[in-house]
User: Fold this.
Amino acid sequence: MLFPKFHIDEVQRQEGRDLTRFDLDFDLPDHFLPEFPPAIFLTTRPDLGDVSQGKLVTIMNYYELFNGILNPKDLEGLRLLVTPFPQQQFNQTEDRRSEAPSRGVTCFDCHANGHTNGGTHLVGDIRPQEFRHRIETPSLRGVNIQRSFGSQRAMTSVEDFTEFEQRAAYFDGDPVIATKKGVNVLERGSQVHFMAELEKLLDFPPAPKLRVADGKLNPARASESELRGQEVFFGKGQCATCHLPPYYTDNSMHDLQTERFFKQELVDGMVMAGDGPIKTFPLRGIKDSPPYLHDGRLLTLDDTVEFFNLVLETKLTDAEKRDVVAFLRAL
Assistant:
């Protein structure tokens, strides 16, 4: 796991817990990353708007922020999501990547405020090492409407994924190393259930330009560019083949077969190879979740539209691409 400096600094300030690694520094400039700290919207209390009060939620403040908003079970789920547990790089053993022994990381260290801070890790279930993909942290907003979890693993419930992260992903899929470093095995019937229930309360941000019935633009509120972009999105751009309204996902996986465009080779210790099937991420609130694609290779929405224009061979004009970006920003 690798974290941006602004998150490291805030956790250090609140908890005195240091997420700095001595072997790697985060490599993306802050202006390509999500707003920090992210807002939190709850499906149960849409009337409250952002309930984070502009703060990063940690073990130090979660209770004062959410007591009276969440029920006791969900409050306990949130406590577990902000509780540090040992992990491959952050633990008490000498085989770590932190200068001092560490209490570990929390789920919300990557999924900041139930969203994302652009933190990255290496996928745990691929070997040999040079074939392991860099994975960018997806948002947890809207997991209640999703039926597939993990950018390429396709787990079938958020409970499965929550348990998997602690048992395997935290330790690169190696149960022997996990035992040595202090794995925290979550109890499925209570802890995993409580955490997953809280995660399912995390809502997409408001989108006042979208109609309630079908999730498409309300012509009375949308700009001409956004309306043109919507037409391209559902037509020439082929975007709606996978990204269906109202949440703009088909809850499936698709192989873009990017290996059509290059030869497999080793670069800086990583094999440049095809990606295989990738989850169709929801596009609701997508403007708040840079960088894009499963590995963060696309820094902006403009980059993303151009990438799919090339991969899908849709031959969009520059004006059409700008309009699609305008539409995506309205979702």
